[in-house]
Amino acid sequence: MMLVTFASLYSFEPDQTPRIQIPHFDKGVHFTFYGVAAVLGIFSFRDRLKKGLDIRKLGFLLGISLFVFGIIIEVIQHKYTSRRTGDIFDVLANGLGALAGIGILKSGFSSKKGLN
C-alpha cells in the first residue's frame, strides 16, 4: 500500500512518463494495483483465518477498507497535489479491482482448507 500511495501522490515530471499513450491505461493500473492489494491482504490474514475468522467477513472488511483508502487517495490528489487530479473513475477502478481480487481468491481457494 506504500507503493500505491507513493505512485498515486508523486508528481512525475512529463519526461518521466511513457511516450506511448493508451486510452484509459491508468484505469487498468488502478484495477490491477487494488486487485493485487486485495489478494495480498487476504493472504496476510491467513493465520487469522485458521483461528475462526470467516473469509467472507474478512473479504468484506478488506474490500471496504481498500475502497475507502482509494477515495482518500483521490481526494488528497485533488486537494494537495499540483500535477495530479482526483478522478471518480479511478475510485471505481480501485473498487472493482479490489472486488475482483477478493472474488478471484475466494473462487480459487474456497475449497482449500486454509482459506475457507
Task: Break the fold down into its secondary structure elements and pairings.
Layout: H1 2-9, H2 25-44, H3 46-50, H4 55-80, H5 88-109
Helix pairs in contact: 2-4, 2-5, 4-5
Notes on the protein architecture:
The structure is a single chain. With 116 residues, this protein is an all-alpha fold. 70% of the residues lie in helices and 0% in strands. It has five helices and no strands. It has helices at residues 2-9, 25-44, 46-50, 55-80, 88-109. Helix 2 (25-44) packs across helix 4 and helix 2 (25-44) crosses helix 5. The mean pLDDT is 81.
Sum up the structure in keywords.
mainly alpha; elongated; 70% helix; 116 residues
* Helical proportion, percent range: 55-70%
Order of helices and strands: HHHHH
Structural Rg = 16 Å
In total, how many beta strands?
A: 0
Low-confidence stretches: none
Query: What is the average of the pLDDT values?
Result: 81
Largest sheet: none
Strand pairing plus helix content: what structural class?
mainly alpha
Annotation field: number of helices:
5
- Quaternary class: single chain
Q: Specify the overall morphology.
A: elongated
Query: Cα distance, first to last residue?
Result: 25 Å
Q: Note the beta-strand portion.
A: under 5%
Question: Quick recap of the structure?
Answer:
The chain has five helices and no strands. The chain is mainly alpha-helical and 116 residues long.
